[in-house]
Structures are given as C-alpha cells and as structure tokens.
Amino acid sequence: MKKNLSSIELHFLLPELKQLVDQRIDKIYHPTKQELVIQFHVTGKGKRILRLIAGKFIYFTQSKEPADNPSGFCMFLRKHLSNARLKSVHQLESERIVQFTFENKEGAKNLMVELFSEGNFIVTDDKNIILSAIEFHTWKDREVRVRLPYEYPKRKYNIFQLAPDDLKDVLENSSKENTVKALAVDLGFGGTYSEEICLIADIDKNKKPDAKDAPKLCKAVSELLTRKMHPMIVDEDVVPIELAVYTSPQQEFPTYSEALDAYLTQFKDFKKSPKEKQMEKLSRIIETQKKKIGELGQQELGVRAIGEQIYQNYALIAEILTEVNKASEKHSWKEIQEKLKGHKIIKSINTKDKKAMVEI
Fold first, then answer.
1. Are residues 218 and 178 in the same domain?
2. Long-range contacts: 141-150, Cβ < 8 Å, 24+?
3. Which of 119, 130, 141, 312 has the least C-beta neighbours within 10 A?
4. Do 45 and 117 belong together in one domain?
5. Which residues of 276-306 are buried (b: 16+ CB within 10 A; e: fewer)?
6. What is the pTM of this model?
7. What total of structural domains would you count in the chain?
8. Above 80 in pLDDT, residue 83?
9. What CA–CA distance (Å, rounded) separates 59 from 4?
10. What is the mean pLDDT of the chain?
C-alpha cells in the first residue's frame, strides 16, 4: 500500500492544485488530528473539496467525512481564513512541503502542509512567522513554535534543478552500495523513481555509484520530470506518469487526484498516524483484557457458589467420604459402584480415578 506522496509526485500534482488559485474558501473541517478538509467555491463550477493528510497526501476528493465538534486548530483556521481566496500554491524547492497562500480582509496568511515524517499543518503570517500548528516540536536544528519564523529542513540539492556536477558530487561521496539507493536516499527520489531513472539512463541499478554516470543520470532525471501526465493505479501503487518499471495491467484516470481518491478510498488506515495506530492497538488489548476479566468474574461466582454449597453441607459430605473410604478398604471400586447404584446423594462412581460424584 502506498504510504505517502514523493517529491516527484507532488511536482506532478501541483498543476492540479493551481486550478484553485483565485478561488474562495467555503468551509473548513478537521475530522482527525492529521486530516484537514477545505471546501472551495469555484466560480462557475460549484464546490471542490481538497483533502490534506499531514505526512501523507494532498488530493481532490468527491466527498468529506462528517466531523465532530471542531478542534481549536479548526476554529483558528475558520476565524483567520474565512472567505479567503487562494492567491498561490507552490512546492518548497523539491521538499515534500506545499505552501498555500490565502488572502482576505485581514491580509495574507500561509498554510504550510508538511508531508514528511508524521507531517504537520502550520499557519504563518505574511512575514512567515508561525501563528499556529497542529504539532509543536523542537529539534536539534529546527523549532516549530508560535512567534518563531517558519523554517524547514532542506536537502543539499534541489532535484528539480539538478546539474551534472551536483549529481557527480553525490555519486562520488555516497556511502550507499548501489546507484539506485544513492538516488533514492541521498537525493530523495524514492525507490520507484530511482529505478525508473536508471532504466532511462540504461545504467544497472545495482552497480556501485560512479561519478562517470552523472551526465546520463542527469539527462534521465530531466526526461522523467518532463513526462506527460498519465495517472494510473498499477501494482498496488498510484502514479502520475507512465513508468517502465511497471508492466502489469493498469487502471487509468483523467487526473492524479482522481487516481489518488479512488486508490485511497479502498483503505481506512492511511489517514492514521503511527501514534493513532498504536493507541488503537492498545485499546483493542485493553478491551480484550476487560472481556477476560468479565469471564473470570463469572467463573469466580460459579466456583464461589459451589464452595458455599460444600460449606453448608460439610457434615454430610464428610460422612459420605468416610463411608466410601471405609468401603474401599474391603471392596473394589467396581463393587462399590454396583452397591451404590440408585443412591439418593451419590450419583456416580468413577472407578478409574476413584472419585464419587454427589448431588446436594
């Protein structure tokens, strides 16, 4: 199952998102912590619903899930982005971050949608000072806090402006064991698109990184990034362009958003963060334990009832045990079984285990 969008996929999705420029926000929903739904009113076409999943996806959808009481973050967005128009949308270099810039009578504000790691939604003012976010963090070289400038982790190279010398430097200094991993990890192309680049360049993906391959690989990157849109679901993946690495039958779509919407509606867990999934797992364990405790409680009541019956009839049971034990000294258990047939209290004798069953 596809877990998130890559930098390249965001690059191809961007023209679809730009169709919202100059359109007005109609409604904002925050169904889950990691999910934001923005409904736009598009002139002459009616509503368009944009779904944003922090750390994972952005796409247009046909429906929105009902939301409970709006969160504090949702109320903040409704207050500051009410009736705002989208003025621009762009990807920050080749990072998995999309910046939506809105404007209304209050002025301009930015919504930063981070699609890396666990993701985040961050609102900044026109000077890029943080006003709100769904997650506040402090890292070694980055901090997301109110009243601080918005900064994001940057790779050394922008893969959309990659020069042969840049690629040569990466290949020369890569610690990865082969070319495909150097492209995937050191430059952030991801596994699928790194394999495609190697195919285009006619370079064995498993060979050690070689700086001599830089010109061919750089040309292959350029060819990949300028391919015509051809959204499809293929081999449990959903991609915006045709890829030679996939040869299986495919389901084609008019837009990448439609392909994503069709693909992701098949799954329910894609919107959940690892923390949410862990909480659900713990909740299931707790429910199982509660059920087991209830069963043990019922067993305890049954055993306690038997114990009370034994206690109330202790003298009678002790007398029966004494008589049966005396009889066993002179007779076999088989003989005792025969003699006690039809007894009012002793209902059966287990000759193998030498046990008597009584009914009181």
1. yes
2. 144/120, 150/110, 150/112, 150/122, 150/124
3. 141
4. yes
5. eeeeeeeeeeeeeeeeeeeeeeeeeeeeeee
6. 0.74
7. 4
8. yes
9. 12
10. 88
